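Recap from last week: sequence in, structure out.
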Amino acid sequence: MQVIPIPLFEDNYCYLVHGSKKDSCFLVDPADEKAVYDWLQKNSEFKLSHVLLTHKHWDHAGGAAELVKKLEEDYKAAEKPSKIEIVIGAAEGKDYGTKKVEGVGSFDVNEIQVTHISVPCHTIGHQLYYLEDLNNKEKKNDPSEPKTVYRCVFTGDTLFIGGAGKFFEGTAEHMQKNFDEIRKLPEDTFVFCGHEYTLSNFQWASAIYPENEALMKRFKWAEEMKNKGLYTIPSTVKDEIETNIFMMTGDPELQKKFGVSDKVGLMKELREWKDQKKTF
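Predicted structure tokens:
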């Protein structure tokens, strides 16, 4: 399985995913119809079968329906099967979804298993998509070789590298449950998020928790990647557990700094402080 990032707008990521065959590919959050269509025209070996939408916001889902319509017309003209599924959370209430999902469930396409996990908070119908290469389930991802992927998760605007999405339609309790779900995934799982917010996330977190050596090391890494003009994706679940401050809500030392004694309380404080750009 391979995952190819397609940068959109100022800091968004769309992704193309394919297995051993390139005629049953996935697109994740293709919000910019023209940019993604043009990219596919230049990379015509890829044929789409599914669009996975993490959530309803325009900068993730806005161009998906028109893109699919255009591609289906192209495929039909070329006398190829033309049906493309648009997968979205049922609770998002969007008519353009042709496969509306909720809770936890899975389906297989082209030797890839897709597990959708509902994570309401940023939006009420937000989904994680956990993909696993069915031919290589026993193999581990190599963090130094992200072009070869055995398992990965697309987190949209729920979890960013070093950060968390805003709680637009949920609470700190919801987001804590969502992060607990991500913790359950294998630690070698590659994490592909919806935005390139990594450096700003670690800049803020380093001012909140400078005592954490792993976090500070990750901050320096993010600076180096930015200076080199490189993507910071993918991360891994292990990286996020060790260096994402929103994954540290069970840390007694961090709870003490904020004057709370539970994970949900700390999640609430962290989000409020991040929104207000407050530091110690």
